[in-house]
Amino acid sequence: MSGPIVDASRIREHVVRLGERYPPIDLSSVDYHVVNPRQVLDRFSHSLEFMARVEMEVERNVLELAIMLPDVSETDRLFYADVWSPQEVHHGIVLDTLSQKLGLPPTEADLTTIVPSVRVLGALSHLPMLHEIIRLLYYLTGAATEKSAILAYNAMSEGLTEMGETAIKKTVIDAIKVQEPGHFAFYRMSALEMVQKKVLAPWQLHLAAFLRSRAFSLVGAYTKSQKTKFGGVLIELGLEAQLEATVRDVVRIEQQLLWAQKEGMQVPKHALRAFRDSVELFRSRSALQTAS
Question: 28: domain range?
Fold first, then answer.
């Protein structure tokens, strides 16, 4: 993959700058005034509920990371413990508060359940050759997660502008949105550095690609119910209308690092299938509810 050379010092400088430039949202600065609560709920209820839960589950994500990658670098630890986690916690608080003010129930976030696959990866990560594969997969998953968030918050911001909901657009959605590109850049640079420095042998990259194709998951969607709700978010935000372009944006980094050798494979089939399945799940559930 062509592009500027990335090194460890550049990544660390980025993380330090990110922490200094974007402290966690000041909760007292948020203006929850809504002009038309019913209209906001009708347009964004699925998205608010889903995104609040995902943002609030960062505490569990940190636990999972500690299990999967017990020997992370100081820069990685600085990013997830001192920059990313505090920012995401406040994102969750702000979204949950807005949701409740609009009349939605309090967010039910799972902060403790560690899925078996994470524990398996944690056991395997003690083998150096597998540790590096898991680290690359962590960066690629993080990049896909943050790109998904960027697309979602951009769509919500545009929608709120159209509706004249200036207060929550500026102090909730835009305040969150401005912090996500820095997270994406960290994951992108970290993955790129590994490939540029040839940290992984060709067989390790092939194995990483195989594992990613078999274990690809949608952001915050691990159960059938969560996958169904993810489909609802895609439809609600208008991202389903250009689904292939959306998926291409979400997985662009891993496509360039893992799949570029496959001519014409601009959108990995496993990723597009996961997004399409979630949309179909939501439509099927909606059809059943309408019929009943």
Answer: 8-291
